[in-house]
Amino acid sequence: MGRKRNAPLNKLFAWVRRQSTKVKTFLAAACVICPLVALKLLVHDHNQFFVVSEAVHFAGILVLIYKLTTQKTCSGLSLKTQELTAIFLAARLYCSLFMEGDIHTILDFVTLVSTLWVIYMIRFKLKSTYIVELDNMPLYYVAVPSAILAIFIHPYTQHARIGRILWAFAVYLESVSVLPQLRMMQNMKMVEPFTANYVFALGVARFLGCAHWIIKVYDSAGKYLYLVGSGYIWLPMVLIAEVVQTFILADFCYYYVKSVMNGQLLIGPTDSGRLRVLIEFSHDSPDPKVKVTVQIRLGHRDFAPRVLVPAVGAKEIIVVYPRVDIW
What we know:
InterPro entries: ER_ret_rcpt (IPR000133)
Keywords: Endoplasmic reticulum, ER-Golgi transport, Membrane, Protein transport, Receptor, Transmembrane, Transmembrane helix, Transport
GO molecular function: ER retention sequence binding
Number of domains: 2
GO cellular component, one term: endoplasmic reticulum membrane
Membrane topology: Multi-pass membrane protein
Shape: globular
């Protein structure tokens, strides 16, 4: 029944894949413009986009908390993304205490505390389930460029210079903080559902933040970009940062929506690949001639991948799976 119900969706996605690059680009632009138009017409106070964006981010953290407390595992979760999130939230909270002191401050504080709890659980309570070798993007790859950019391009306001630099640093770092998580997903070749829900929440939050800036620029016929900034550069850089993060998450969100509609498990868009499976042997060393059979079920489809026979004393096997069309 589920396959019949989702047949039109499968046909739609198959039709999209067959189209030319120009048609795909047009369809992608339409999928972005239509929600923006709807938000502009339906929401009169566009500043509320930031409040909703921060609330959605907090909801994503709640999903992680539920996963960690109920399943007692942090498998598939990037500690480095959580640490980057805590860094930019701490910087933004410090600035917010002196610059705003409103609902944004409360949301940032609650989200920061929740993120620190997630970091504590990964580092200490659930350390044995953390796959550190797959979370291999160095923090300085994203933190250092963000800091350098913030020193040179930051807002010109009446506040202290350190506060203005920290605010810019938080904006830039937030735009790339999800990269370690996406890198870890690529390394794993498969995405755990709760982690997928968390990343999708980040995508929705970033779209709302980006929508705020785009609508502001549209309403002012572009003049909003030059209201304040370091040499007319700050606000355009904020918009660029929002757009960059939105596009970073857009591809994942597309496959996420597609998988949810089809009731499938997420797996990276790839040709045939390898899935590392940790195993425990009942004897000191397995018989290298023993044939290992593995069955993988992805959504509604079964796969019987080729398995590389483990060597004597091995503690893991390598599963070679065929190409699949889902993310």
